[in-house]
């Protein structure tokens, strides 16, 4: 990967005793932030943690020296260095005086999106998720360059804090041919988003840090006009966006629906359930948990629906290897685990499979910068740029029982499966099931299910009541059969 950071321009702003220490620092190319707080020692932050640069405390004169060398701070207390990607943020006291500065190192890293190049070529809207500092802005900047230069699309950036294209009137070369629209005030970002579509005829709109309801509505409006969106939002997981009432509109929005008695029995759920209420503004979601490991949701609508109804979820992980290759893993497990699953354990195959031995794991090494991926619930085929099939590195296929539940609360069954670590997967499709577990009083009046089970030779287990003991006994009989 080629990295351009213009670090010298940032160091020139700092007091000499800080600059000298950083110039000689052995790990300065990994520097993330420099923190200067009044009355405290200067601190630098690296991916593996912070460290102090000096035994001297920051004084008023040190802060004033820096402030005089940078442009005025905007309404969101941010500034920058012209024609660079660095961001400088201030902390002020009650009187409006600057008492702290944070220097965020901005880098253009070329080649970071090689693992998702196949997704960019689909033309789908992409939402990047992750905590602050994990690399979302760096990634979206490289996506912008690829879309504008390599794919020759008309790209417009809505640059609220000048982080994507840098400070000043001339955009940084890292964005390629893309055009940049600056935002006067952060609260006006949604208006500039609509203005970009109406006035400049873009094919792609780039938005950093979607955080308000108005911005989410504007994103949906843009998507409905046929413009591709690439945006970022704070949230570690897709599940956290679903639970966020402000941002849930990005993935289709959530609403309560009341089912009829027969439908509730058929689903084995309560009468009031959550459902997605519209088509998502973003069709693809990418969770960036660290700079080298990403989790991909290629069909956001399907994933959200499965999360809400408690079905099996398929997750795809892509990881940069030290040798330049890309590892792709596909794993599926019950959505009840989504609230607590850890990305590191997901990318560590053995850890996840020990907790849930139910589905498929396929690892594939790709030694090319352009891949085309076709992904379904139980299979993952990866083709290289010249359409030759890449060698499968490892395939683990755990045979498991596929169960259809009728008249029984699915969450109760999932809880039993999880507690006893049973190799059982729940399905909403009767034709995919090996067994049916039903409440006797419910299924005896349903001729259609009994006929379907008979024609497909699906064995039906019935229980008198949906107690945990009855469910455990029936599930164990299925596994032992």
From TrEMBL:
Pfam families, per the entry: PTPase, Spore_III_AA
Keyword Plastid: yes
Keywords: ATP-binding, Chloroplast, Nucleotide-binding, Plastid
InterPro entries cross-referenced by the UniProt entry: AAA+_ATPase, P-loop_NTPase, PTPase_dom, Spore_III_AA_AAA+_ATPase
The organism's place on the tree of life at top rank: Eukaryota
Keyword Secreted appears in the UniProt entry: no
GO MF terms held by the record: ATP binding
Domain AAA+ ATPase as annotated: residue spans: 122-278
PANTHER family xrefs: KINASE-RELATED, P-LOOP CONTAINING NUCLEOSIDE TRIPHOSPHATE HYDROLASES SUPERFAMILY PROTEIN
Name of the protein described by the UniProt record: AAA+ ATPase domain-containing protein
